[in-house]
Amino acid sequence: MMNIKRKILLLVFAGLASATSLYAAGVGTTAAQFLKIGVGARAVAMGGAFSAVADNIDAIYWNPAGLADQKNKQVTASYIQYFQGINIGFLGYSQPIGKLGALGVGLNYLTIGGIERRTTDVDTAEGTFGANDMALYLSYADTRFIKLPGLRLGANLKVLRQTLDDKVAQSFALDVAGLYKTPLKNLTAALGIYNLGTSVKFINDADPLPLNIRLSGAYRLMNDALVVALDVDDYIYDERITESLGLEYSINKALSARAGYKLGMDSQSLGGLAGFSAGFGVNVWSIQLDYAFVPYGELSDTHRITLSTKF
Prior knowledge:
Blueprint: H1 2-19, H2 41-45, H3 59-62, E1 74-81, E2 86-96, E3 102-116, E4 128-142, E5 151-164, E6 167-181, E7 187-197, E8 200-202, E9 205-207, E10 212-221, E11 226-235, E12 240-250, E13 255-263, H4 267-270, E14 276-284, E15 287-295, E16 301-310
Antiparallel strand pairs: 1-2, 1-16, 2-3, 3-4, 4-5, 5-6, 6-7, 7-10, 8-9, 10-11, 11-12, 12-13, 13-14, 14-15, 15-16
């Protein structure tokens, strides 16, 4: 019975994975696929090219080293309504702690409900069940570990919990990343390893986490009004490499426009504008509202909203 339910869920995740650039080859070789779904409408609108930017609280997910330069306490909340009843959200808080660096905490979750249960080959479902994934992030960033001007280092300790009907799997993971303000003015670079941790095990089946090495760069032009960013992700166990290109243009202090493109989408199957993303940001009275539009062709269009503030 458990094997049947697990196969059903894997099929759901395989569909989700292919729709979120988790690619056709290698899908299902790793667990906790939700960890690959980027958080924060700003970063997502830029195609996920954000690790070398990482200048807001979403750095918890993209590059914890970016927290080191933050001067204020920050709070954020994001929500995504996917297709097939999949709901995704992220909650985060960060604050500087003086000369000791900065701390952050985040909660990333994914829920699926109404999955039909069939324990035999029948047309009528025997009921429904759900699945929930959760990742708790504990983040730290500082500039003191290596005496290289412009270098920031950060790390995440992640506690993962996945439930499938009445079955539970837990694991732990570590992210370690650096953010470097290069001697070339306005150019930043980043390098990180993500999801280094224990396997996820349901009953007797264990799968590794989606280990990822990410190399990133970002360049600011026009007095910092325009940001051009590139992220290259190498998913070790999935044996896939993807590239994300993003742009952000600050029209003024209150309004920003963004666009991005992610190579590696199964555009031939999805069709339409799969791989493309766009969005905007509005900042009024220290409240930041970000929106991202990400189409997945035949599957559907998705909309992401993030609210954040500094205080």
